[in-house]
Amino acid sequence: MSARDSILAKLHGGPPVKRRDPPLRPAVHGDPVRLFVSRLQAAAASCEHLARLGQVPDAVSAYRCAHQLGGPVAVAPALAGLAWSGVGPTIGSCDENVDLGVSLAQAGVAETGSLVMLSGPDTPTRLNFLPDHHLVVVHTASILRHLEDALLLLDASLPRALNLITGPSRTADVEQTIQLGAHGPRALHVLLIK
Amino acid sequence: MGKGSPRDFKRQAGVALKDPALRIALGRARSGFVEKRTQARRQLPEFDRLCAAATRVRDHSIDHLDTLLVRFEQEVLAAGGQVHWAATAAEARQIISGICSDAGARVVAKGKSMVGEEIALNPALEADGLTVVETDLGEYIVQLAKERPSHIIAPAVHKTREQVAALFARRHEGPRRDLSGIPELVDEARRVLRRAFLSADVGITGANLLIADTGTSVLVTNEGNGDLCATLPDTHVVIAGIDKVVANATDAATVLRVLARSATGQPITAYTSFFSGPKRAEDLDGPKHFHVVLLDNGRADIRQGRYRDMLRCIRCGACLNHCPVYTAVGGHAYGAVYPGPMGAVLTPLQWGLRESRDLPNACTLNGRCADVCPVHIPLPALLRQLREDIHDAKVEGRMQRWLLGRWVRLALQPDRYRRVTAQVAGLLRRLAGARGRVSRLLPIPGWGRGRDMPAPAGKTFFQQYRTPSKSSGDRS
Q1: Superfamily name with CATH number, domain A30-193
Q2: B-contacting residues of A 57-96, CB under 8 Å?
């Protein structure tokens, strides 16, 4: 008997039953966008509101200036159509020399302040984790209330990876003291588009 | 790796209590965990009801493991991944060893995985000639120090920053540098481990949950190391216990809401990731090969017995953080992969009662672990049950068994019992003297050494019962 068969033989359960307990979700009061922003900020991310998607390249330039970043910039193909002439980024590919990555979130979750990043040809996953600084574009219209709403995207498109990102990378592994920038980005900056 | 053994718990606990650096490290960490969880709970009015919901989700999973696991397997296969079943730790090691060899791997980057510890994966892969790098900072520290994790979510909680600095200075190349602060330590680890991520051929991570409906492995981290392990190397291997599966994304969300809050007090960790198979044809990145190894290693047997509730465990670590024994002796004293209350239940069940007979006794039955468990595992009741099993299996210590036997015989003879207890009470009172406390209980050397005992009251209950009361003379 294979390991699979012997394990399953021990596990025989009843037929699948429908549970009757009602779904329980924490209340999300008020404007979900406002809650989303406050949760993200509580997780040590910074946020900036922009009126139009077209303003993103300028906002990226301003961020680089403010943080004195001179290194290469990588941008998700989903945002390749913007006027990037002032930044001169590489589109799509991202290696360890890139110090700023710009990506597009599929959605946001107000309950937790999480960005919902789907892997795909236009939204590579490396951009979310390799650079020191991570800038994420998210449309306020895409901000959902609950985790469940975001996870419906799994059923809908089943990407290789769905990353919920809530703030920059951190560790508390030395003396339970929180330190940002463990392995992923040291800083997370979110550009909210009306 | 294999330092200590559950068999030596008493000796190891004694050593731990006298280790000054351990006292400092545990002292610095202890209150943090408890306060953060308390605050997280306070900020979410629905927390207790969400815990009840998570308990129902986990019960449903354990009831239907077979259908859920088969569905999970189907979905992973449909997404282009592979599923492997391992009945034992040795089978799991063999499977992963084979995957690495097929991948022509030289370097393996590992995310933190308690199942990885459970199957002692690293020594097996190293014996194959592979370089295995733990990438979670705490796990990396423990690997460098050739130790094992002392906490299921904070592997290096037993180390002070000074010890970590000394370790890095000794084991990393480079000129003399300032390693006095935590930022410098984290930066140095980031630099060293970045090279490992970029050169790794295989990434191995654990899973906090598996979602049956979509064949998805869920990984909860704060550092982002698990995501780098799952994104950069050509092969991604997920190892998970068969108990980790839940039915669907809604159930996963329910568990996630209480997991991070119970563990670190965060509403959600910085990264919560959902992996479903290898890179798609048009994707620009991601692993070409995706494997899930499902480990039984005793879980199916636990499910059939009286300890079934234990399988609900989501490995948050709250029971460790609130346990007066764990927070006094630390994780290494347990000599097992899983320490603290959850470990004191799991270790005897997985490694045998005889080997682990001291662990269920390392408990004051104060019940805090059950109070804070987000999936309502009745840990003190399970520990008491294990004590009974240990007695029934006749594997407890000879002295303990002899004393219990004497006690039972005495208690079955009421006259003798009254006589002996009256004598012992009188003796203890004389020993206690004016101080009113007995500081050395000579007949019980191990137990008595660390404890004071208050002198017994003036008379035993029966002596008082027989003496006519002065205030009310109406007793017949």
Answers
A1: NagB/RpiA/CoA transferase-like (3.40.50.10420)
A2: 77, 92-93, 96
